[in-house]
Amino acid sequence: TASIFDSIAAYHLPADKTEMLGYIRAHEGSPPDLASSSPRPGARYNILVTIGGGGDGEDILSAAIEMQRNLDRSSPYHLTLVPGPLMESAARARVDEACRALPSVEVHGFVEDLPSRMKRSDVVISMGGYNTMCEVMTVGQPSLVVPRTYPRREQEIRARALERHGITRVIDPKDLTPDTLHATLQELLHRPASPHGSRPPPAGPPRFTQRLTRLLTEGPRHSPSFVAPAPVAPAAPINRAEDQEPRSHSHATPARRRVRP
Predict the structure, then answer these.
(1) For residue range 118-139, what is the model confidence (pLDDT) as tens digits?
(2) What confidence score (pLDDT) does residue 191 get?
(3) pLDDT band at residue 229 under the 50/70/90 scheme
(4) What is the DSSP track for the chain?
């Protein structure tokens, strides 16, 4: 929404043709299995760490694991780590091995209903992807974001904008250590909860429906007349050796390939 980040102004979009619809509310299903995520005796806080698809973000999991290792039996946290389905097998093996002997740590490659898991967590640590932040704002739990800053700054821009409104707390990736993670978690856990009204309403879907209905009802504003292009003479064939080489399609998107019977 414009109150969080005015993308129309930031990207110089045509104001008369652009309408900000708002965020999308995440679906909240049934509560997760309590036995699979209950803290060990002595652990006071459930901390959920999710890194989206898992293509990157191993550093966040590593910092959380090392924090728990340093705190040892005095740790007040129960960690639930969700590496994501796209994490490379070698990285996933490192995470599993690092967690093997640690108390009160569980690793799930996939969580069917993540918003419900978030709802039962005291803090949600993430990279700040759009879908994740919609889920966080839906459940209203304290949020800590360590955003991706390279090669794209989308997550950082979103996280900083939400931080200015008290919706999340941000740690720059270059400042992420087990100690800074622990200190920031303690800050989040002991500060007053942000008022519900500070979060933007998830009004995206109904506004989209209204916008689409209005466009279909009003129809196009104008119908420019069709002008046929002037005929162009076919280009002469270029007879170069490299054009006769078979082209490799090894980098084609799998979804666009056709398999003939």
Answers:
(1) 999 999 999 999 889 989 988 8
(2) 83
(3) low
(4) -TTT--HHHHTT--TTT-------PPP--SPPPGGGSPPPTT--EEEEEE-TTSSS-HHHHHHHHHHHHHHGGG--EEEEEE--TTS-HHHHHHHHHHHTT-TTEEE-S--TTHHHHHHT-SEEEE---HHHHHHHHHHT--EEE----SS--HHHHHHHHHHHTTS-EE--GGG--HHHHHHHHHHHHHSPPPPGGGSPP--HHHHHHHHHHHHHHH--S--PPP-PPPP-PPPPPP--GGGGSPPP-TTS-GGG-----
35: left (phi over 0), alpha (psi -120 to 50) or beta: alpha
Cis? peptide before 151, omega within 30° of 0: yes
Residue type present at position 170: V
Q: Could you tell me if 155 and 127 are in contact, meaning their C-beta atoms sit under 8 angstroms apart?
A: yes
Please tell me the pTM assigned to this model.
0.72
CA 139 – CA 141 distance, rounded (Å): 6
Dihedral over Cα of 207, 210, 213, 215: its sign: negative
pLDDT at 177: 98
Report how far Cα 86 is from the mean position of its chain's Cα atoms.
Answer: 13
Question: How would residue 241 be classed by pLDDT, with cut points 50, 70 and 90?
Answer: very low
